[in-house]
Amino acid sequence: MSSFAASISKVFHGTFIHSVSINEIEFIEGGLLFIDIHGRIARILKGVQKTQLGNMLEGVDEEKVIILNENQFIIPGFIDTHIHASQYSYCGNGHDIPLLEWLDTLTFPHESKFKDPDYARQIYSKAVARSLRNGTTSACWFATIHLDATKELVRVIEEQGQRAYIGKVNMNQNSPDFLIETTESSVADTRAFIEYVNATNAHMGTESKPLLTPIITPRFAISCTSDLLRELGRLAAEYHVPIQSHLCETSSEIDFTMSFFPNSVNYTAIYAEHGLLNRRSIMAHCVHMKDEEWALMKDVDAGISHCANSNFNIKSGMADVRKMIDLDLKVGLGTDVAGGYSSSVLEALRCSRTCSIARNPGKSLSIPELFYLATMGGARVMELGDTIGNFRVGKEFDAILVNTSVKGSPLDIFAHDTVQTKFEKYLFVGDDRNNERVYVQGKEVRVPEE
Ligand code: GUN
Ligand code: FE
Predict the structure, then answer these.
(1) According to CATH, what is the number of the domain 78-381?
(2) How far apart, in Å, are the Cα atoms of 51 and each of 30, 56, 100, 244?
């Protein structure tokens, strides 16, 4: 056997669809894609006929080869740049309540239940399984303030095989007695959490890159004192870890925030002044931004998670994604469960389209732009643009094998359908029933049965 054949773990033959730029989707027909034992894309051939496979697959075990039919194709896995695992249990509820009241009456009481790690495992197992079934191969998760429960989330994600940024939430002010920390315990637990994830990765000891990353997660400036924000900025620098938070989601949130930070010129500056705004920062929403705030985001190359589903549902407003793209800011999609009603990035994509039509009539997002945001855009927001997001030799294989003709799925395929029309139908009509297989780092994920 050749050494190349020996280094291969899987080979796929069929149609591959991915973004090659924000304005261009490439449809690779007759694609032959080789995955190596570390889950990386080792070789991509195009225009290969089935009759040529015998020669091209010499030395590769038959059980490693997957041949797609004309109703199947492979796309990069979706990237959810903002989701709350602890909020999954009430996803779909509370959409008549505006943000700050929604936090007080619904979110905080639910999140307080995560002081019990057994309860946490129960909810987290379902949240992660649903996200994976929806085709999300990478996610930026918020947990809660609770260290043990957040470790439980790490274990659940590791068991199920998703690529993830995982954050223990920080809250030491403007929070109810049943969901608040001291500055000292917040900092100590965050440090302990980072070390726990790093140790988990070290134990796995494979040659493949770790899939789990701890992320610094101040809930938002309202729930953290200046002291705490500063300490969190220091931890981010000390451990070289990413940062996630909420920014400019609603007007009343902005007013309330500025009343606590009167010396800062704007909301974005608060994060910047505390060492929390840099190229590894992921700021959710950015609905009500001033020009100086866009400029600051651009200056430091911070990423934006566009959460259109949530912004419609809890009626926060419509973010100007066209402006983000025109300014060449890094932007991806976030489902923001449970502000958003669905952990499907397909739903986030559809809401983004509606949002862009309403916000920028005449300049709404194109299908290539929407697909890019759901995949490559998210990868860039996570600073993983060289690792995932599309199919390039050397990148890791995070992907969905889509079947457009699954019995019981919402899609109907007709004789006139082409590869392009099947793909568009999946984007706008399809759901998890069409996600036949989901791969992270070349391995099919282990989603528990419902
Ligand atoms: N701002 C602060 N916390 C939250 C949250 O849990 N969800 C949303 N959508 N916005 C927030
Ligand atoms: Fe959120």
Answers:
(1) 3.20.20.140
(2) 11, 10, 61, 50
